[in-house]
Amino acid sequence: MSAFYVYILASQRNGTLYIGVTNDLVRRVFEHKQNAVPGFTKRYGVHTLVYFEQFDDPENAIQREKVMKFWRRGEKIAKIEETNPTWRDLYDDIAAL
């Protein structure tokens, strides 16, 4: 059974935010960190994984991503700080699994 993820990357604490969805969180965040794909995260230096949620199916993950992208900035920051108040990079945690 595959897992699907919605994630938030940040350029720094309270910096630029990016929300994405993927079926391979480790690979996708690594690509962002390496600037492997041109786009928003490369242009604005958004490489720190500060939040993610796991889903069992792609439809729920995509729906959640769409909802989160419409949140105001304060709502996104509050969601990050619920589980990651120091805005620590979570990549090493997930890469070790």
Could you please describe the fold and organization of this structure?
This protein has a 3-stranded antiparallel sheet, with helices on both faces. The radius of gyration is 13 Å and the shape is globular. With 97 residues, the protein is of the alpha+beta class. It is built from 5 helices and 3 strands. The chain has one domain (4-95): GIY-YIG endonuclease (3-Layer(aba) Sandwich).
List the helices and strands and how they pair.
Blueprint: E1 4-10, E2 17-22, H1 25-33, H2 40-44, E3 48-55, H3 58-69, H4 73-83, H5 91-95
Antiparallel strand pairs: 1-2, 1-3
**Order of helical and strand elements:** EEHHEHHH
Work out the number of β strands: 3
Q: What's the CATH topology label? A: GIY-YIG endonuclease
Overall pLDDT confidence: 96
Broad shape? globular
Helix content: 40-55%
CATH architecture annotation name? 3-Layer(aba) Sandwich
CATH class category: Alpha Beta
The total tally of domains equals 1
Our Rg estimate from Cα atoms comes to 13 Å
What is the name of the CATH superfamily? Answer: GIY-YIG endonuclease
Q: What's the arrangement of strands in the largest beta sheet? A: 2-1-3
Structural category is: alpha+beta
**Beta fraction of the residues?**
15-25%
Largest sheet: 3 strands, antiparallel
The count of helical stretches stands at 5
Uncertain runs are: none
Q: End-to-end distance, in Å?
A: 17 Å
